[in-house]
Design brief:
It is a single chain. This protein is mainly alpha-helical. The protein has a single domain, classed as MetI-like fold (Orthogonal Bundle), CATH 1.10.3720. The protein has 14 helices and no strands.
Length: 280
């Protein structure tokens, strides 16, 4: 019986696996090095050649982290801020994207162009006027000062508008209107379920961005009980020297919730991205 040999284009070459292994190593090594430093001290961290085996001081340094700053409270604050921003971006950006994609109103294209152009403005330029608004509202040193400005952004609106334009046909929406559905019912019961994977990915990206944000919380938060996790890590350092072991221990503890989140939702996130890629 004659067997057919696989074509050369169908075989995955060894160098493809080598490149994938190299990319995986480049992504995972900083996390592994963070853990090594979190289990040692500053002297070990700067030693040459560097240590590649974890030490035994992790639990001691982790205890110092929790005793030096209100780290548990900071994690809770970050969960509240990042979770609210993630959900808010998923819903509000989808709602705005639906309006730009499927509704007809005067100035729609000009307004969407203005939203897209705001992505070209550096975030740092908005800090001063944003702080003035927060101060006028008496929101300085509160969590809503972090939550409200992050509930929607230009990238999320652009992302959802493009996805809704390609994933939802006008005939489905017209049929819903003929059946008597309002604009909100059409969005919530028909449009949003169809683009839920893309909205989920957007919300997860918003969660990670808010969790890792440092500059704006550093400007607006004053009290230790209001610190987010990134500001708590900054509080572990003093003005004269940096205990690398203590700082990396706090950083590793702050990274653990994101790792746990990715373990549970990583496959769904990849599926949402691929779904958006093929439909967009």
């Amino acid at each position: 019986m004659r067997t057919t040999r696989p074509r050369s284009g169908d075989r995955v070459r060894w160098w493809a696996y080598a490149l994938l292994a190299l990319a995986a190593f480049a992504c995972l090594f900083p996390l592994y090095w963070m853990f090594i430093v979190a289990t040692t001290d500053t002297a070990t961290a700067i030693k040459l050649p560097p240590e590649i085996v974890p030490g035994g001081n992790f639990f001691h340094l982790a205890g110092l982290v929790f005793s030096t700053v209100p780290f548990v409270r900071s994690i809770v604050n970050s969960l509240v801020v990042a979770g609210t921003i993630g959900v808010g971006q998923a819903v509000l950006c989808a709602l705005a994207g639906f309006a730009f994609a499927k509704m007809r109103f005067r100035g729609r294209d000009a307004l969407f162009l203005f939203v897209v152009l705001t992505m070209t403005v550096p975030t740092q330029l908005a800090i001063v006027p944003q702080y003035m608004i927060i101060s006028a509202l008496n929101w300085v040193d509160t969590l809503q000062a972090l939550i409200v400005p992050g509930l929607a952004n230009a990238f999320g609106i652009f992302w959802m508008r493009q996805h809704i334009s390609s994933a939802i046909s006008d005939e489905i929406l017209q049929a819903a209107r003929i059946d008597g559905a309002s604009t909100w019912q059409t969005f919530w019961h028909i449009a949003f379920p169809l683009v839920r994977p893309a909205a989920f990915v957007l919300g997860l990206l918003g969660f990670v961005t808010a969790w890792n944000d440092f500059l704006w919380p550093f400007v607006v938060l004053k009290s230790p009980e209001m610190y987010t996790v990134q500001i708590a890590i900054k509080a572990l350092q003093n003005s004269f020297n940096i205990d690398l072991g203590l700082a990396m221990s706090g950083s590793f503890l702050a990274t653990l919730p994101l790792l746990v989140l990715f373990v549970f939702v990583g496959r769904r996130m990849v599926a949402g991205i691929m779904n958006g890629a093929f439909k967009g």
